[in-house]
């Protein structure tokens, strides 16, 4: 028997303490059970445009295909999702070519699609997805950074700081080239799982340990989101900060 998933969520985006524009964008659609977050970059106004287009176009296409996606086997679902993502990537890339002030724009994109018995994760860039389950916080994504590429190549421990200076150089973003190589995976969810989608404006300022500490307090999703963003800003707020919390009911 299939189970029906119900989601509770709260999201918040803040410009931070340094930037003059907010280039993050997020959206949740409960009808298709999609949660998405993007952190744009490039061009004079490109970051704002890229992140907005990535999230809005993705959710539009998921909504259009939603009923069909529900019934697909895993490999067919991945193929369909890859097709949707390629279309979104192409739209952003082509847009950047026709308007000079958008040249070079791109965006991270991380999203979750909750189906009846599982959830699918898509990830490109360094906007992370975490899961808090039974008090344990797990990061479900790996940043597409030059730091991680070099660590993997030279088999360095994940905790090593030897490649720290390459942390903010992204090796994979949406919309900056005609093709993409995203991470796509499926997970199983449980009742009371709490999922965190966030931009690097949070994770550059707030450690995983601090995130866990805040999320395990008896607070509402709104209160927890505000605390996380306030903490990032109190530590410098060098970037836009976006947090989306989603709890499985």
From TrEMBL:
Stretches assigned to the PPM-type phosphatase domain = 9-248
Against Gene3D superfamilies, the record matches this protein to:
PPM-type phosphatase domain (3.60.40.10)
Looking up Pfam families in the UniProt record yields:
PP2C_2
Q: Which domain of life is it from?
A: Bacteria
Single GO MF annotation: protein serine/threonine phosphatase activity
PANTHER family (UniProt xref): PROTEIN PHOSPHATASE
Q: Report the protein name in the record.
A: Phosphatase 2C family protein
What organism, scientifically named, is this protein from? Chlamydia ibidis
Q: What is the lineage of its organism?
A: Bacteria, Pseudomonadati, Chlamydiota, Chlamydiia, Chlamydiales
């Amino acid at each position: 028997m299939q189970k029906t998933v119900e989601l509770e969520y709260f999201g918040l985006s803040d410009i931070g303490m340094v930037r003059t524009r907010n280039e993050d964008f997020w959206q949740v659609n409960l009808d298709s059970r999609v949660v998405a977050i993007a952190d744009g970059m490039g061009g004079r106004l490109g970051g704002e445009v890229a992140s907005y287009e990535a999230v809005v176009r993705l959710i539009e296409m998921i909504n259009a295909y939603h009923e069909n996606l529900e019934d697909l086997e895993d490999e067919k679902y991945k193929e369909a999702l890859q097709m949707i993502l390629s279309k979104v990537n192409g739209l952003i890339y082509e847009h950047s070519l026709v308007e000079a002030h958008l040249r070079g724009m791109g965006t991270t994109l991380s999203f979750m699609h909750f189906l009846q018995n599982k959830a699918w994760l898509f990830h490109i860039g360094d906007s992370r997805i975490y899961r808090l389950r039974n008090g344990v916080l797990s990061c479900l994504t790996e940043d597409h950074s030059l730091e991680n590429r070099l660590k993997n190549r030279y088999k360095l421990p994940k905790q090593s700081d030897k490649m720290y200076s390459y942390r903010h150089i992204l090796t994979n973003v949406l919309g900056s080239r005609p093709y993409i190589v995203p991470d796509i995976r499926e997970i199983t969810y449980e009742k009371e799982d709490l999922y965190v989608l966030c931009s690097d404006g949070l994770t550059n300022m707030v450690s995983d340990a601090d995130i866990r500490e805040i999320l395990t307090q008896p607070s509402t999703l709104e209160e927890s989101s505000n605390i996380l963003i306030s903490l990032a800003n109190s530590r410098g707020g060098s970037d836009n900060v976006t947090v989306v919390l989603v709890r499985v009911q």
